[in-house]
Hints:
By secondary structure, the protein is mainly alpha-helical. The chain has one domain: Growth Hormone, Chain: A, CATH 1.20.1250.20. 78% of the residues lie in helices and 0% in strands. 56% of the residues are buried.
Amino acid sequence: MISVNSSEIVYMKTNNELSFFTLLLLISFASVNAVLFTPALPAITHFFSISSSIAQQTITWFLVGYALGQLIYGPIANRFGRKSTLYAGISLQIISSMLCILAGIVNQYTLLVIGRFMLALGSGVGLKMTFTLVNECYEPKVASQKISYLLSAFAMAPGIATAFGGVLTAHYGWISCFYAGLCYGVALLVFVFRLPETQQYRDVNAFEYRHLISNYIVQFKNIQLIIGSLLMGCATCIVYIFAAVAPFIVINIFGMSSTEYGMANMIPPVGLILGSLVSAQFVQKYSLIKMIKFGIFMISIGVIFMMLMLKLHYSALFSLFLPMVIVYFGLCFIVANVSTVILSNVSDKSHGSAVMNFINMGLATLVVLSVGYFSLQPLLLPMVYLSLCVAMINMYLKLKTN
Length: 402
């Protein structure tokens, strides 16, 4: 048992092995809900007679809900336990999926945006609790390896979800994507019942105002946590910008169908799979900081390759999807290793991971919202990605010195 003073939460390492499959469903929960419907975005603009920028609100408000949810689940998890928190989040996702379905039935776009916001609040529990559970149950090196392996499997989920969403949209309409999300939530709720409870002691003061604010102030004063979270946020931006912008560029400019776009999205996750597997092996040989540096380097190579292919007017397959394989390969060396570096030095894993993911997703929200104001041209992607690479290099240098 770890002994701390009375103002801190006391945790005990559990000997129960966490189910890899359940953790996979958890860590993929929000990302699948985020991208499952993206092939349907052009169809949604037509259905509701709105512009592409307005349609992107379904992603922007999802990210807002995703970011806010990270802070909400911290105190909930400390007060009621990890499993009760998971039950609450997953149940909210199920209810929100029904709300999105209702929006299509009654033809109310505002209701769809509200449903997406609530959907993010619910599904956001998956990422937050996965990092908490893994970092509570395993030592830093083992935790990093576990997360890397999770990411290798998790890498397939968004691609499969997007491809599945493309098929559903083409054959059954965009509303069917939310029926699929509803089924996901119900299935995950069943699997979570078998997870062990990793929190041995409840923090009865978790919702007390001063105690709550004090806990978060401590986390926000952790410079390494803030810098690392911003670095993760830059990496996350790359994923969600592609989800928000690529459907319109590929379908409206390059002329792909929603089904073809969905299938093409199976290509970039190959980079995540390879990157996660390589990262899991390298963690035994190299320092986490060096692996983060390598990840940024690979992302930069992929972005430069993307810009070159677009300049030479290659098809979307060669100019967008193949370069994203390299970009996603590099992302794996950032997400797993940065999260481990910053959380290994945080005693309160629940509030620490909450702040980490809040900053992570909050930055992604702001950047995706900003990108929506630009003309959706192919070169927009590599230009934004290059700016993010510069930011990541800056964050890496600061993280290295702290």
